[in-house]
Design a protein that fits this description.
Residues 8-22 have low confidence and may be disordered. The protein contains three helices and 16 strands. With 386 residues, it is mainly beta. β2 and β3 (76-83) form a beta hairpin. It has one domain (33-385): Porin (Beta Barrel), CATH 2.40.160.10.
Amino acid sequence: MLNIKLGIALCILGQIPIFAQQDTLTEPISAEKLKVEFYFRGGFLSDTHSREENSSSHFQIDNARLNIQGDYNKSLGYRVRFRFNKPFATTSMDNGSAALDYAYITYRFGHKRTWEATLGKQLSVMGSFEKDINPLYEYIFTDYLNGVYANVFLAGAQLSYKINPKHSFGIQIHNTLNQTFDNHLKGNQFSTSGYQSSDLPIGGYAYWNGSFWDGRFKTKYSYNMAQFAHSYYTHSISLGNKLQIGQHTAYLDLVYSHMGADFGLTSSRLLSIHDGLGEGAFTMRKNIVYKCAVSRYDYQLNDHWSLTGKGGIEITGSKNTISEQLRTNYIYFVAAQYAPFKTQDLRFYAAYVGNTITYHDALRKPDEQLHRFTIGAYYTLPILKR
């Protein structure tokens, strides 16, 4: 563990001479570039759920976010984004909040500024195109992108290098979770017995982003290793692929994770209930696996109309107990969007969204089904741009 800490410290110190090079850029009084946007999506939805108490028809605000980003000069950039329908309570590990998506600065340096260093709360660099789409455009996310099995909006540091306009690679060091060991487990009705909090509860990504065929095919590939409990590691491989030809756009994301200690807690909760344990006494399990495949297709009919479809499957289970397929989560939707203005990101939509969850027979747990019909609008409001 000491060697890991020393290695991280040396990596950071090794960058100081580079960062300390003389800045020949002008220093403006305020940011040279500034963009302030308000993201909104809301409408009417009608849910029919296999659990009657979850069925409802009502109006709902799905998204309300304020985004501020720009460049102080050619070398220094920044971004801050808040969600108004998430808790602003402080998260125990990073001193941020669930409402804070981004709060980071980016420094570009080196010849032609091909190096970038980012520090603060930022987006995970996992190999995924689902996470890259404007959140207004997605009607349902995988559990993975909802932060169940991975930390998506995380505090950390990133260093990347752009080989050329088509390829870049880098590393990202981050907190494994935004909550401490005790807060995460106890807040989810789990016991901490049998495990010890890691002295270094962080993870690291190595990633490569590529572009081929004049940008028609793009890749985002990553490997991650993270630690939550002492001596237990999570290893994840994520492969994001995107194809765009004319008016057709599609992505396919593939993910595999082996969790030495299941901080995602989904399989651990199912196995704890199966073993007769009550809330507060649930136990985190070892050697949990997670697999995911999710794809989306968009077709732009004309300047105003577009059609979208998405489908995904997520499987989680245990290598030690019962099966690697304890829970299977299917997500899917089809939607039509109408954009009345060519220059504004305003769209009216009508969509069907479905979610099917099945469980292994040994768990003796009924399957779950959601059917949702929704109509509404989403809009990226350009408040200020310079």
